[in-house]
């Protein structure tokens, strides 16, 4: 048996490689799949026949300056793709959404609703399942608050792009919902002054009258009952809302009374329902995903049996059914681990065989990289915090240099999914700890709201307490700790070296927020601007007091700022302003602007530049192979 190849010998380019296929989805007959393929370092939309090599694949490059957000089959001949782009509008930069249709045989592209004058035209409510090329789309037609601003519902033939209006826009209604038959049944309105949401509903008879059946005040953190599946032949629907323990679960709800009729599904203890799996025809709940990283729990007996059989065959690896064809006889299954990007397989119920479609990262293959596990520790106030810990392969877990890597959001969560950043850093000799600090999602409403008023305070202490735990366990060397994060994690990296200046040897902020007040005020002109302001103001009573840009004087550790100039989530100026302020104060600070990079680093070239910058900075300021002078750590 050959000796394993040391992880540290794997080049940067291998970790940075764009997945061979992303968002893979099966055609209705299960003979073809569509997805985003990594080609020459960029993503293209591709349609491949799985069995007949004589069928020429269709490959389409994304329109210049756009990102693909989703891919869906309409029928065997047509695929639709959601796009978004950052464009200049009224002297500002706005995210604009549109769709394209692609003929799976000819590759012909049809622009769908690109003649609309509004910001968004890609909210698909319904897809016909009778073989016709018809869909329902919610789309607005103006950027100004006039009668055309509120989205209409349009019936669109995706093969031609022709459309007709089904439901006219109504004041304050920004979202519409349709049932499996293609009837618009509900809408959600929002008033930015009162911060109140309303659920409008009409029964299955098709009456044109929508009436308000539920009201929620966002200032009181109330939420509407939002249906995701209308049950045929009734005014009942399936919806997700909190149970009596504050954990999201699935209920059958009578929409006319808002009363729960029955509890459909509660997640296992300690987790929540994250999203449902609904049949292709939109009429049946097949299963539910839970927070974490496991496969869904299937309610359909056949799918449950298939999942059980696959699980037994893959051992310690994880198998997830990621796409089903119309009659659920064929499926795409991703088999991976937290320490491997894995591969995509095709499975047919007829021959019960797994056929490999693609290795997600051909450079890394399916071999295990650095081991990953979940750990739990008590924060200083006793609250239990869960974290993902990755340690270098083949190295004893003792006195390792460590990188704390808080997630973005902050309303997000790290799980036991393959993470190419964490694996890369671990491959260079560092332990990597990703704490799900209070305010993270997936642990229930109580844990989520525990972050309110604690941004830069207890939320940051949870990260520090994770470091202290790793030191106490003997895993980490307190003299060799750095903090690296992106988006909110970038904020936490900057704030970490300001709040606890003697704790870290260095920090790397990737697309981080340096000025919280500016970030909040930037929401002022948005449709939900006042709600967003309320949400952020709940996180801290004083933005300026916990903004890194106002605490530069306290910083001692070297700081690296990396930011894409095409970031449409956090403005590049956040990093530029922090760099200017820190450099002016005589701090050790570097800024690496990436002209073509977006917030998620979707281009391979930008991923390579990012990982190289991280590796170089860590090696210079926290070399993994040599201890340095003692740096005290707070207990």
Automatic annotation (TrEMBL):
Q: Where is the Peptidase S9 prolyl oligopeptidase catalytic domain?
A: 420-621
The family database entries (Pfam families) matched by this protein are listed as: Peptidase_S9
Report the InterPro entries cross-referenced here: AB_hydrolase_fold, Peptidase_S9_cat
Q: Which GO terms describe its molecular function?
A: hydrolase activity
Superkingdom, natural source: Bacteria
Q: Which UniProt keywords apply?
A: Hydrolase
Q: What is its EC number?
A: 3.4.-.-
KW Hydrolase (keyword) present: yes
UniProt name for this protein:
Alpha/beta hydrolase family protein
**Organism this protein belongs to:** Novosphingobium aquiterrae
